[in-house]
Amino acid sequence: MEDGKFHFLSLTLLLFFFITLSQAFTPEDNYLINCGSTLETTPIDDTRSFIGDSSKQGSIFLTSTGSLVIKDQNPSRDSSVLYHTARVFTKESSFKFGVKRTGTHLVRLHFYPFVAQSYDLSSAQFDVSVNGFSLLSDFSVGRGNSSGSLLVLKEYLVMVDSEDIVMLFSPLGKSGFGFVNAIEVFSAPDDLVVDQGVHLISSKGAGIYNGLSSKVLETVHRINVGGLKITPFNDTLWRTWIPDENFLILKSAAKPVARSRPPNYEEGLATREIAPDQVYMTAQEMNKDNITLASKFNITWAFPLNPNVMEYLVRLHFCDIVSTSLNQLYFDVFINDYYAYKDLDLSSLSDHLLAAPYYVDFVTNSENSENIHVSVGPSELSSSMRINAILNGVEIMRIVDGGGSISRSGSKKKPLGVLLGAAVGGFCLLCVVILAVLVAIKCRKSKSKPKPGETGTWAPLRVPGSSSYSKVSEGTTNASYGVNLGLKIPFAEIQHATNNFDKNLIIGSGGFGLVYKGVMRDNTKVAVKRGVPESRQGLPEFQSEITVLSKIRHRHLVGLVGYCEEQSEMILVYEFMEKGPLKNHLYGSGPLSPLSWKQRLEICIGSARGVHYLHTGSTQGVIHRDIKSTNILLDEGYVAKVADFGLSRAGPCIDETHVSTGVKGSFGYLDPEYFKRQQLTDKSDVYSFGVVLLEVLCARPAVDPSLSREQVNLAEWGMLWQKKGLLRQIIDQNLVGEIKSSSLRKFGETAEKCLADYGVDRPTMGDVLWNLEYVLQLQLQEPGIPREPHEDSTTAASELPIPAAIPRDISTNIRIPANMSDGSSVVTTSQIFSQLITNEGR
Ligand SMILES: *[C@@H]1O[C@H](CO)[C@@H](O)[C@H](O)[C@H]1NC(C)=O
Ligand SMILES: *[C@@H]1O[C@H](CO)[C@@H](O)[C@H](O)[C@H]1NC(C)=O
Ligand SMILES: *[C@@H]1O[C@H](CO)[C@@H](O)[C@H](O)[C@H]1NC(C)=O
Ligand SMILES: *[C@@H]1O[C@H](CO)[C@@H](O)[C@H](O)[C@H]1NC(C)=O
């Protein structure tokens, strides 16, 4: 497997040169007009040629008259040829462009005022609309700016849903004329603006923003952080990116960094069209060299805005070009002083690759301010040695009010044209096809194992393979529970995949119904969970699971392939997990070979990562509520993934500390505080996770009624021995002699903290994760250096293998419960047990 991956990587590298040369994006609709000119010209900083609208070829786009052509008699030496001519509109006039492919289009208008033939373009005053939607109203370029060039470039992203684009110029007011020097209208890549994963940040709290792709967006800032200006010549979509220096509030807080090799684009994260290599190859990081700054600080940029506009899209680009190994960099992102992303861990979002480009979209309410502030700073999780924070790029776009899909009434929708730009020569085309096939074959091969972390978080969902139902669109959501309709799978497809629910394919059963193994038409293996037909009892769980899983994606969470809700069926289709539940590898029937301590720790770390992501990965956070060893599944390579989101709930909102809810969950794993107060926090999951840790160590069920009274409940039994310092007495027989004392000690302490009676005393999942990584490092340490790193910080430290992550000792995190007098009413787990013993759990 590792080998296959290596070959794939080297193949990719080998062909990289070719790919970059030949895979350039080719827009299907591509109109580039040099207005007022008879010439076809290619600007110096561009790669494309613009045709003159006064030439035979170009004039066909000009649909109505009332315009004339002017030419600058003394063009400035350094202005582009494009700006030596202009078309002046003295009456309402329009351009009309045919649409071969509906979808998002980029529209750019170039205005470069000069004086010619009694027209002073800087005094022009006019409106511009596209298909009746106003882009510029009462617009006037003015005299440009003494500091820079005279050029005013307006760029829009517009969803087009009609046969053609009509761009109307209407002169206004005193001047009585309008003008334009150049026009670009071209198709954008499908994934440039997507609806999924857009976070709303506002004073009223965080949330999800819907329907972004149908809004008209106007570019306000496009910044290559830590890098140089990028001209259309070097950008995949012929954009201009400018350096960030002038926007930094404290220049000395930031230090530019660069990487010489191209970034590692990964499917499901950012693509080269989202931002080009050069954006991801440079960044600003914290300037830790400047000793006059505090040990922890933010880097903050202020981007000026028009205070009258309410909503802005802020797209942040990240690529970890500063770390030397995975999981070193944890940082927080703020927009306008609100948390936008807490504990961002870029390497966990990619498939364990450094320097994988990633972007996140936020919509923010500008609150009439004149600036938008973007800050990055070290997260609480960063160890003192690895404090850092980075940013690679920023785009800020105004969300134009009243946006909506621009379609002209009465026009029929045209099917997507399959037309290749003439620019692609036959040879190039052949290269592309051969490469695509090669890569596709390689991808498919490496997919025989459900590829971990196939897509990053918040990225648009991709259904494995690609058949009729693989197109994901969240445009129309089911009003009742915001379900991603693109994940719907026809019942017939599921019948086919499971051989009509063949009994021999049953791989499990639960409260919800039966689970079948299935194979989709594209040969992806899936697990099909079928709710008991005719009973709608599980409906809330079913909907909750779809809602949660369709919004998130993580290497350590079992991925949802799709669902079916036809003919009163409730069916969920997941990626298939070859090795089944963790529980089956720990105890019970079956001749499974016992897992080593290292394997067990890796499984714990993986599932901790999954749960940590649930808690922190989205602005609101999700509480799983049913963490247990049967809900941790293992794939072919024993990579752990957390499953079963049927009970999960959105976490508390910013100003609440908990969610009140009826007690649900599985017996033996229930947080005593949650049980007592019915208040759900993410610390309830931490408790359940502590029980799983003991299960992994002791290889016995959380509750075993066949044992003596004091042994029945694993959490109590384990803590009894842990407190005596004799945890080793009750470990799995298969582990005897394998676990190093330091590793076991730390593991026991970690479990103990998780099982604290009060949520406030328990560590966060992030802390648990750090500590488990430390436990693993302690286990892997070479014999002969049994000391913990902090016990020997001088010479031996440099010889220590890795500490991939320097852990924070969780004992430093303990908070004293605010109200100890509550202790009198503590319900012990055994009391709960006696109340619930007849309940089978779920
Ligand atoms: C394109 O990028 C290269 C490498 O960064 C640079 O040397 C060149 O000047 C750029 N070209 C233009 C037209 O910006
Ligand atoms: C040039 O731009 C700056 C800031 O963008 C502005 O303050 C100034 O008034 C502008 N000058 C002219 C002549 O428009
Ligand atoms: C360090 O920071 C201080 C205060 O922000 C600044 O004045 C100084 O120029 C910085 N020094 C360096 C070397 O960046
Ligand atoms: C970073 O900025 C945020 C938002 O303004 C603030 O809450 C936080 O305390 C800052 N962090 C540091 C280390 O200054």
TrEMBL record:
<protein>
    <recommendedName>
        <fullName>Protein kinase domain-containing protein</fullName>
    </recommendedName>
</protein>
<keyword id="KW-0812">Transmembrane</keyword>
<feature type="signal peptide">
    <location>
        <begin position="1"/>
        <end position="24"/>
    </location>
</feature>
<keyword id="KW-0472">Membrane</keyword>
<keyword id="KW-0418">Kinase</keyword>
<keyword id="KW-0808">Transferase</keyword>
<dbReference type="GO" id="GO:0004714">
    <property type="term" value="F:transmembrane receptor protein tyrosine kinase activity"/>
</dbReference>
<dbReference type="InterPro" id="IPR008271">
    <property type="entry name" value="Ser/Thr_kinase_AS"/>
</dbReference>
<keyword id="KW-1133">Transmembrane helix</keyword>
<dbReference type="GO" id="GO:0005524">
    <property type="term" value="F:ATP binding"/>
</dbReference>
<keyword id="KW-0732">Signal</keyword>
<feature type="transmembrane region" description="Helical">
    <location>
        <begin position="416"/>
        <end position="441"/>
    </location>
</feature>
<keyword id="KW-0325">Glycoprotein</keyword>
<dbReference type="InterPro" id="IPR011009">
    <property type="entry name" value="Kinase-like_dom_sf"/>
</dbReference>
<keyword id="KW-0547">Nucleotide-binding</keyword>
<dbReference type="GO" id="GO:0016020">
    <property type="term" value="C:membrane"/>
</dbReference>
<keyword id="KW-0067">ATP-binding</keyword>
<dbReference type="InterPro" id="IPR017441">
    <property type="entry name" value="Protein_kinase_ATP_BS"/>
</dbReference>
<dbReference type="InterPro" id="IPR001245">
    <property type="entry name" value="Ser-Thr/Tyr_kinase_cat_dom"/>
</dbReference>
<dbReference type="GO" id="GO:0004674">
    <property type="term" value="F:protein serine/threonine kinase activity"/>
</dbReference>
<dbReference type="InterPro" id="IPR000719">
    <property type="entry name" value="Prot_kinase_dom"/>
</dbReference>
<dbReference type="Pfam" id="PF07714">
    <property type="entry name" value="PK_Tyr_Ser-Thr"/>
</dbReference>
<feature type="domain" description="Protein kinase">
    <location>
        <begin position="501"/>
        <end position="775"/>
    </location>
</feature>
<dbReference type="InterPro" id="IPR045272">
    <property type="entry name" value="ANXUR1/2-like"/>
</dbReference>
<dbReference type="InterPro" id="IPR024788">
    <property type="entry name" value="Malectin-like_Carb-bd_dom"/>
</dbReference>
<dbReference type="Pfam" id="PF12819">
    <property type="entry name" value="Malectin_like"/>
</dbReference>
<keyword id="KW-0723">Serine/threonine-protein kinase</keyword>
<feature type="binding site">
    <location>
        <position position="529"/>
    </location>
    <ligand>
        <name>ATP</name>
    </ligand>
</feature>
